Amino acid sequence: xxxxxxxxxxxxxxxxxxxxxxxxxxxxxxxxxxxxxxxxxxxxxxxxxxxxxxxxxxxxxxxxxxxxxxxxxxxxxxxxxxxxxxxxxxxxxxxxxxxxxxxxxxxxxxxxxxxxxxxxxxxxxxxxxxxxxxxxxxxxxxxxxxxxxxxxxxxxxxxxxxxxxxxxxxxxxxxxxxxxxxxxxxxxxxxxxxxxxx
Length: 198
Known about the structure:
The protein is mostly helical and 198 residues long. Helix content is 78%, strand content 0%. The chain is elongated, with a radius of gyration of 18 Å.
């Protein structure tokens, strides 16, 4: 039952935001009593912690499945962006923005884990792009990893509208890729941009 509650809470938090969803909403959605939820979670913050850990695990499993498909580095980044876009289907306030605003301690924990995971993922992508001739060989990989995660996290931390965050993320991905790409890479990028809308 605990896993079912975490799964349902995660879905609702991502769709409607961490602040908006109450324990009553989750209980109602699952057709269980609120008492059942409190049997496993002492408060909403404890459930949010477990839910963010669940989402984190799910996200990185999907990223791993995308990176093992062996697409080129640029296509891979666009596939990962699409996965995030599909997963965070909130129509209004960005869940990440809400988490930072209303649950800063949980957000700080999530952020430290995510920066490590994302840095590893970005680093592997840049190395792959250089090896295949899509990114320039003279790149300082660590600098570009920092530039990109700073840009992405800044967008998500400071943009309340999920729609606007998605639009800016696509612009950031284009900006990041153009800064690293060879002429061959630019051709692949332009093709990806034709297929990905804001």
